């Protein structure tokens, strides 16, 4: 048996730190804590103060285990097997702040991490991990009046079924039964569904906090399935907007206006979406400019003055993306729109890419600009 003295262990630690310094790396802080998105009572996955993630999977008979996750995870993390049958590994570098989907590959099969909660994305329920953000206060659960997110089922003759949507109503909606509210129709991205903006995006908490701070005029948010998952990855050009446009314009909006206290006119109706939801937003607002007065594309493309020329003038065009995406294109589009006489605003989320922290921040910036 090899026995180490404290002096020997200290020497090892100094040598390891020196090697990291020579390699230009920063030592990983061993202050890991369970992710806030873990299953109740589960210790892993964990995150540390630097944004690294650590995973621990029990698979005693497996030959290989890899975690595949988002942008900061460097494409995948190979886990190492211990004598106890647990595989453990840490990301090669810190991850971007905010929410990330991930999954576990065990001997070639794809699984979810039993320690983490699941979120619908990439056309399947995947594990989720939250890297604490320096600005997470704006979507934190606070002791403020809260609105309500309720599921509705609305009839859809065009699809011959009942379809689902989630509706956020602001604090006080049930008490002040005479007040009517503007409405934002907020769309998810490819591979997600109508649960995304609440579960991953925390839209309801963003709204509650902004309302409590007196920064926005309270409004309703409607989130429904965008009929996107029938399109396979890489075949977005095959997507036809007409079926969803019919559901939204001819079925959902009339249902919402007849079952909720809405201000049912163009000046009090907005549409916005992230990623493919932005593509849907752009197409529908250009097809139906008399329906929506406010437009928002969150990592979802841009409008040009030529797109809007000759149509009912929008009251606001909001364009955003992460600084790791294509911010110059967003900024130029807004400059061009302003020069053409349109009220347009750009927002760039610093140090994020095509991910929910970008879209949380974008909604936080968009909401105070609506329904002025």
From TrEMBL:
Q: Do you know which InterPro entries this protein is assigned to?
A: AB_hydrolase_fold (IPR029058), Esterase-like (IPR000801), Ig-like_fold (IPR013783), Ig_E-set (IPR014756), Mycobacterial_A85_antigen (IPR050583)
Gene3D superfamilies according to UniProt: alpha/beta hydrolase, Immunoglobulins
List UniProt keywords, sorted A-Z. Answer: Signal
Mind telling me which CDD domains this protein's record contains?
A: E_set_Esterase_N
Give the signal peptide, or none: 1-23
An example of a Pfam family matching this protein is: Esterase
Give the PROSITE patterns listed for this entry. Answer: PROKAR_LIPOPROTEIN
* Superkingdom to which the source organism belongs: Bacteria
Q: What is this protein called?
A: Enterochelin esterase-like enzyme
| Lineage of origin | Bacteria, Pseudomonadati, Bacteroidota, Cytophagia, Cytophagales
């Amino acid at each position: 048996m090899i026995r180490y003295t404290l002096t020997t262990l200290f020497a090892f630690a100094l040598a390891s730190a020196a090697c990291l310094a020579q390699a230009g790396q920063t030592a990983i802080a061993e202050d890991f804590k369970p992710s806030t998105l873990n299953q109740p009572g589960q210790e892993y996955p964990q995150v540390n103060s630097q944004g690294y993630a650590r995973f621990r999977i029990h698979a005693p008979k497996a030959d290989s285990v890899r975690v595949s996750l988002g942008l900061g995870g460097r494409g995948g993390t190979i886990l190492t097997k211990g004598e106890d049958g647990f595989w453990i590994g840490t990301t090669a570098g810190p991850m971007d702040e905010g929410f990330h989907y991930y999954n576990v590959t065990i001997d070639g099969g794809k699984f979810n991490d039993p320690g983490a909660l699941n979120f619908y994305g990439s056309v399947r329920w995947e594990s989720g991990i939250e890297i604490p953000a320096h600005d997470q206060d704006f979507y934190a659960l606070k002791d403020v009046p809260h609105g309500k997110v309720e599921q509705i089922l609305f009839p859809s003759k065009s699809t011959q079924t009942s379809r689902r949507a989630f509706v956020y109503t602001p604090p006080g909606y049930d008490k002040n039964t005479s007040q009517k509210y503007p409405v934002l129709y907020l769309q998810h991205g490819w591979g997600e569904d109508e649960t995304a903006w609440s579960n991953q995006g925390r839209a309801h908490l963003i709204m509650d906090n902004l309302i409590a701070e007196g920064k926005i005029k309270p409004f309703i948010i409607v989130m429904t399935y965008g009929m996107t998952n029938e399109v396979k990855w890489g075949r977005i050009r095959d997507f036809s907007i007409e079926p969803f446009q019919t559901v939204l314009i001819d079925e959902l909006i009339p249902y919402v206006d007849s079952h909720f206290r809405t201000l049912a006119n163009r000046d009090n109706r907005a549409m916005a979406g992230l990623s493919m939801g932005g593509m849907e937003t752009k197409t529908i607002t250009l097809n139906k400019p008399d329906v929506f007065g406010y437009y928002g594309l969150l990592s979802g493309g841009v409008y040009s003055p030529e797109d809007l020329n000759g149509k009912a003038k929008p009251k606001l065009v909001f364009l955003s993306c992460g600084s790791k995406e294509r911010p110059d294109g967003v900024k130029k589009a807004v400059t061009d729109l302003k020069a053409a006489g349109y009220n347009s605003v750009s927002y760039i989320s610093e140090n994020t890419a095509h991910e929910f922290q970008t879209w949380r921040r974008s909604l936080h910036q968009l909401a105070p600009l609506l329904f002025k």
